[in-house]
């Protein structure tokens, strides 16, 4: 199933679009609310979810007059802050609460900004209910692309990641069969140019010092290991119907070119812009239209020169592991992702070294098989097995 509109006439959108923002207190969720403020005549926030940030949830619910809110952590469901929710606002709690918001009848667009594997349930529910899914939860596609993509009707699954939004924009009006190669750009993270020996003792603070983007802690560490780019390779494979080996990672430190598509005739299309996630978020909400800019424009006369380099998969082995998992397919990307989530968190907590992230993921992949994906329940089981293996591997590398 293609995610692109065909050439048939489209019915005009009815505004305002009713939006649910899942994970509204995180980086992507907060910037989504910025876009909704700027375009209040076109976007109406009707539902919000958080994991545990109840004060921010309550403040946003009052600001936008939300009818539904959800708190994933049941221990926070009775926080005093929630007494300030607007009148008539329905509160739900528990791990399935955000998923329930994704299929509400009074929601048109679901922005899935949840972090990690848990977001697959909400993404699946949104697509199955016929909603437009603007998703930043790349793990959903990495782990469950075989399940989710058959539900992806044209114009209903819109990527929020800057790179995949760029590829999507380059492919509008094009046929996937005419693609020769996808150039997936990468800033290189804070350790670009270092050799492997220099990475052994890097600190959490160094790994979190991303040179161009401001993101949540988990994705920032993934960017430092290049696992984030590896996950994006698998994501692009599913979204754009391209083999893993046609997706090339290109280091572009200025983060001005967000990705490129090369066609069989040698023509290359690129999408350029500032390093501001509000731009791809807004495009996912406005598609197929374009609205006035939600972020500062780039002065190309004053911009730094654009440079390019090769991604070093020997030094940053997580990228190579992700490619391996993507080629194998089945449930192996699920094992890769689960192991990475465990190892990433352990590194941030000081329980392992930076290079141990790669070692743990490699160990789990070696102990896992690539089974054909048949259900969400199967993926949950594969995820749990991989987390158990990763936790055991962590005990062997702990300092």
TrEMBL record:
Residues 19-145 form the 1-deoxy-D-xylulose 5-phosphate reductoisomerase N-terminal domain. Pathway: Isoprenoid biosynthesis; isopentenyl diphosphate biosynthesis via DXP pathway; isopentenyl diphosphate from 1-deoxy-D-xylulose 5-phosphate: step 1/6. Pfam families: DXP_redisom_C, DXP_reductoisom, DXPR_C. This is 1-deoxy-D-xylulose 5-phosphate reductoisomerase. One of its GO terms (molecular function) is NADPH binding. GO terms for biological process: isopentenyl diphosphate biosynthetic process, methylerythritol 4-phosphate pathway involved in terpenoid biosynthetic process. Mn(2+) binds at residues 161, 163, 232. It catalyses: 2-C-methyl-D-erythritol 4-phosphate + NADP(+) = 1-deoxy-D-xylulose 5-phosphate + NADPH + H(+). Its EC number is 1.1.1.267. Residues 157-240 form the 1-deoxy-D-xylulose 5-phosphate reductoisomerase C-terminal domain. NADPH binds at residues 26-28, 137, 139, 216. Gene3D superfamilies: 1.10.1740.10, NAD(P)-binding Rossmann-like Domain (3.40.50.720). Catalyzes the NADPH-dependent rearrangement and reduction of 1-deoxy-D-xylulose-5-phosphate (DXP) to 2-C-methyl-D-erythritol 4-phosphate (MEP). Keywords: Isomerase, Isoprene biosynthesis, Magnesium, Manganese, Metal-binding, NADP, Oxidoreductase. Belongs to the DXR family. Residues 272-388 form the DXP reductoisomerase C-terminal domain. Its cofactor is Mg(2+); Mn(2+).
């Amino acid at each position: 199933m293609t995610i692109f509109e065909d050439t048939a006439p489209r019915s005009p959108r009815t505004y305002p679009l009713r939006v649910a923002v899942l994970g509204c207190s995180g980086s992507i969720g907060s910037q989504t609310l910025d876009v909704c403020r700027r375009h209040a005549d076109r976007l109406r926030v009707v539902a919000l979810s958080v994991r545990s940030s109840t004060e921010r949830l309550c403040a946003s619910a009052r600001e936008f007059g939300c009818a539904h809110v959800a708190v994933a952590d049941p221990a926070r469901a009775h926080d005093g802050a929630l007494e300030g929710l607007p009148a008539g606002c329905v509160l739900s709690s528990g791990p399935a609460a955000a998923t329930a918001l994704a299929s509400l009848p009074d929601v048109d667009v679901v922005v899935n900004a949840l972090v990690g594997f848990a977001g697959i349930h909400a993404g699946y529910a949104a697509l199955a209910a016929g909603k437009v899914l603007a998703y930043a939860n790349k793990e959903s596609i990495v782990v469950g692309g075989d399940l989710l993509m058959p539900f992806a009707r044209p114009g209903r699954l819109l990527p929020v990641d800057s790179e995949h939004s760029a590829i999507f924009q380059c492919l509008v009006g094009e046929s996937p069969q005419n693609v020769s190669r996808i150039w997936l750009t990468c800033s290189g993270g804070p350790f670009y140019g270092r050799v492997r020996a220099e990475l052994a003792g890097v600190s959490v603070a160094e790994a979190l010092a991303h040179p161009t983007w401001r993101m949540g802690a988990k994705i920032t560490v993934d960017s430092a290991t290049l696992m984030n780019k590896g996950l994006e390779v698998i994501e692009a494979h599913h979204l754009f119907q391209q083999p893993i080996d046609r997706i090339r990672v290109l280091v572009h430190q200025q983060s001005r070119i967000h990705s490129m598509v090369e066609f069989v005739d040698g023509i290359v299309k690129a999408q350029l812009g500032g390093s501001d996630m509000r731009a791809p978020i807004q495009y996912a909400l406005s598609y197929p239209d374009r609205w006035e800019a939600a972020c500062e424009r780039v002065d190309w006369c004053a911009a730094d020169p654009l440079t390019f380099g090769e991604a070093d998969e020997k030094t940053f082995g997580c990228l190579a592991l992700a490619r391996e998992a993507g080629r194998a397919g089945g449930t192996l990307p699920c094992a890769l992702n689960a192991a990475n989530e465990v190892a990433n968190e352990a590194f941030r907590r000081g329980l392992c070294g930076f290079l141990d992230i790669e070692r743990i993921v490699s160990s789990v992949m070696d102990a896992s098989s690539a089974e054909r994906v048949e259900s969400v329940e199967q993926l949950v089981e594969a995820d749990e097995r991989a987390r158990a293996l990763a936790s055991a591997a962590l005990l062997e590398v702990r300092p």
